[in-house]
Write a structure and sequence with these properties.
By secondary structure, the protein is mainly alpha-helical. It has one domain (2-140). The protein is built from six helices and no strands. Helix 2 (19-31) packs antiparallel against helix 3, helix 2 crosses helix 4 and helix 3 runs antiparallel to helix 4 (57-75).
């Protein structure tokens, strides 16, 4: 619900930040692979139920994303960890999601990558860094 309302309100040229992905990556970095993939499965299932996408595509892509975010996040330096993990995980998510949703259809992958996936990822990364910064500052006030 938040994804539909907020991301539609701040879309630019049809590009929308994936708020669920941002929260999933933050959660996965904190709680690890199993928790990340489980949270991704439930978040993806909810988004599948709220959209007209093929049931299970969101669940699969988000659960792989949750696992990937935790695994990739362990390999990154602390300084750039969130941004790089968000971008890599988002790229994997979008490739899985779009591949399955376009099976049997003639599609130009380079055009999809350049015109839709990369701009969405960049926008998601910018919004994600802002959310991460403010959330980190807010939570560190309680420590």
């Amino acid at each position: 619900m938040m994804q539909a309302v907020v991301s539609n309100a701040i879309q630019i040229f049809g590009w929308k930040p994936d708020l669920v992905l941002i929260i999933l990556v933050m959660f996965s970095l904190q709680h690890g692979k199993i928790a990340g993939s489980t949270a991704g499965f439930f978040a993806g299932t909810l988004s599948d139920l709220m959209s007209w996408n093929l049931l299970g595509v969101g669940a699969l892509s988000k659960s792989v994303t949750g696992y990937t975010a935790a695994a990739v996040g362990k390999m990154m330096q602390e300084r750039n960890r969130f941004l790089l993990t968000l971008f890599v995980s988002g790229l994997i998510h979008d490739i899985i999601f779009n591949y399955i949703n376009t099976l049997g259809k003639e599609i130009h992958w380079w055009a999809l990558l350049i015109l839709q996936i990369i701009p969405n990822l960049l926008y998601t990364a910018i919004v994600g860094v802002v959310i991460y910064y403010f959330l980190d500052r807010w939570l560190s006030g309680y420590e």
